[in-house]
Specification:
Largest sheet: none
Strand content: under 5%
Radius of gyration: 20 Å
Number of domains: 1
Structural class: mainly alpha
Helix content: over 70%
């Protein structure tokens, strides 16, 4: 990353922090809800990049080689992403209704939904993801170690990412339950990681290779899981579950839902069926960039209807939270990318000689 890029991101982070301070003075609960949504979207990029990195360790090919630097660099920013969780952990009493013991319907929830346990789980998630990211970086260039860390790491990722989604987002509505919610959160992160890696390598001048096919496959997976959750809840017709969708399908949020359906599935699906888009650098760059932006839209759609946040303050709180979290993370990513590129270049030579 150039010095000018770092300067712009630094100014963006400061502007986001200033806007956040103003929003906190107006309505701290609304800002916390917006920051939670921004944190979920931003953290999905390094966590999803780690998952995609582990997948490419198991399914290696010429098309994966240019993805390794951005994936490894993004995964190594996990400690920075963990630090971004601090405001969420501080704001637990204002964000999550289960902090009131009466809101926990069962004995298990009374233990599981305890603030100290919530904080401990979040720390464990980021500690495990950081350890897997470091192991993956050290394994790069050694085919045997890449397969081992890819296999073990994906198992750990699947378990921890599922619980993270349940903790951070689903528990905003403690009476709502979906057995598929953890998988839904995984598809959210995979889309973020795949779109980010694709966007970075295409911006750096790489040939499209199979990036469009991978992105299309994950989009289909995302759409399938979203549809399955909706169908199961619609068929069950349980009030606590139906009300979750009613809050997200009425009023302005209904428009956001249809925008997600059209922009994240219908339009890119038909666009990527065309080889001109799937193997075209500029069209694919647009699809990847739009997918990244829509992760923030989806995150706010998932989070805000489950909170009391609302009103004109959102016009300040939403961009301020996104700018503060996003610019800070991008600064960390730029530093990590500059540090690991010489190592990945050496790993490429080692891997090619092993073949």
């Amino acid at each position: 990353m150039t010095a000018r890029g770092r300067h712009i991101l630094g100014l963006g982070a400061l502007a986001g922090a200033g806007g956040s301070l103003a929003a906190i003075l107006i309505d701290p609960t609304a800002w916390l809800a917006c920051y939670l949504a921004a944190f979920v979207a931003v953290s999905a990029i390094p966590v999803g990049s780690l998952a995609m990195l582990l997948i490419t360790y198991l399914v290696r090919g010429r098309w994966t080689e240019e993805l390794y630097p951005p994936f490894i660099a993004a995964a190594l920013t996990m400690p920075a992403a963990g630090l971004l969780a601090v405001p969420v952990l501080i704001g637990i009493p204002w964000l999550y209704p289960w902090t009131a013991t009466a809101a926990r319907p069962g004995a298990l929830q009374a233990v599981y939904l305890a603030p100290w346990f919530f904080i401990a789980r979040t720390v464990v998630y980021f500690a495990l993801w950081t350890a897997v990211a470091l192991a993956a970086r050290n394994a790069y260039g050694n085919p045997g170690r890449m397969i081992r860390i890819g296999s073990v790491g994906l198992i750990l990722y699947g378990l921890t990412a599922s619980f993270a989604g349940i903790d951070w987002v689903e528990s905003l509505t403690p009476h709502f339950h979906s057995s598929i919610y953890g998988l839904l959160f995984i598809t959210f992160q995979l889309l973020a990681g795949a779109a980010f890696g694709t966007f970075v390598v295409l911006r750096r001048g790489a040939a499209p290779w199979r990036y469009g096919e991978v992105l299309l496959s994950i989009m289909l997976f995302w759409a399938y899981i979203q549809a399955m959750q909706y169908i199961v809840i619609w068929a069950g017709n349980i009030p606590n579950e139906v009300s979750w969708y009613l809050a997200r399908a009425s009023g302005a949020w209904g428009g956001v839902l249809w925008a997600l359906v059209l922009l994240q599935f219908v339009l890119p699906f038909f666009a990527l069926l065309s080889e001109r888009v799937r193997y075209g650098r500029r069209p694919l760059l647009v699809v990847a960039g739009a997918t990244l932006a829509l992760r923030f839209v989806e995150s706010f759609w998932l989070v805000l209807p489950g909170t009391p946040a609302g009103g004109p303050v959102l016009l300040l709180a939403v961009p301020a939270a996104v700018l503060a979290a996003g610019a800070a993370w991008l600064l960390a990513f730029g530093v990590a990318l500059d540090c690991i590129e010489p190592r990945t270049a050496a790993g490429d030579r080692t891997a090619m000689s092993a073949r």
